[in-house]
Give the backbone structure.
Amino acid sequence: MTRYIVTGGSAGIGAAVVNRLASAGYHVTSVARRKAATDVELVESVRCDLSNLDQIESPIKELIKRGHPEGAVLCHGFGDFGSLEQFSEARIRRLVDTNLTSNLLLARLLIPIMKAAGKGTLVFMGSEAALRGGKQGAVYAATKFALRGLAQSLRQECSGSGVRVAIVNPGMVNTAFFNELSFTPGADQNNALTAEDVADAVMTILEAPPHAVIDEINLSPLKKVIRQR
Ligand SMILES: NC(=O)c1ccc[n+]([C@@H]2O[C@H](COP(=O)([O-])OP(=O)(O)OC[C@H]3O[C@@H](n4cnc5c(N)ncnc54)[C@H](OP(=O)(O)O)[C@@H]3O)[C@@H](O)[C@H]2O)c1
């Protein structure tokens, strides 16, 4: 049974990745606070708050015990923007724990089992904010730059063991990511990617032949237009 783990599979990009994988006939375990929004039999949900770093190890170890996953796509995360001095220590910790530290802990659990199996693909969900910083993005960009450094380092560390590591860096994607934010992509369809566009990029990485690693995919909408609410 070929199985994938997808974090953040309950909404947005992660949900689109879950759907793509299930449509291709793979078993998928979604890990998020909410269940995956699908009744497809191939999809199961493990509910977990990945910002709660003490609670990550136990459910992931349980999942690993059931057998080697073919790969994992780590899509969970959220956006929080503002100038650095507006962020309390707790607000910084929440964003860093969710967007960065949880990914380190998940990779630390998943990489050894993939190395032992001599195969597996780990895909991180970065952002255009992993490529360049911008106004109001200090903390968010810090998490995504660090995630990209993690992906690049693991990519080199793991290749000798047959394990592939990649990162996808999307520009603005039309999802609930923007629900609590003061801005959204512009209204024109050229101003935002769809979650399915990003899932297609993930599938390209996963379906590359085993000897080929697509280290990184950067994709963005045709025109970057930001609309303030
Ligand atoms: N949308 C964009 O423009 C954009 C652009 C570049 C990169 N990204 C990145 O893409 C990823 C997914 O974003 P999205 O656009 O798909 O947003 P979304 O629609 O809001 O989905 C976010 C997903 O992350 C999960 N998640 C958030 N906090 C979590 C937590 N504490 N524990 C477990 N799961 C958690 C959510 O699940 P639950 O709420 O069920 O826990 C949900 O499944 C994020 O890493 C984001 O930084 C987004």
The chain has a mean pLDDT of 97. The pocket of NAP is lined by residues 8, 10-14, 32-34, 49-51, 75-79, 98, 125, 127, 170, 172-173, 175-177 (CB under 6 Å). The chain has one domain: 3-228.
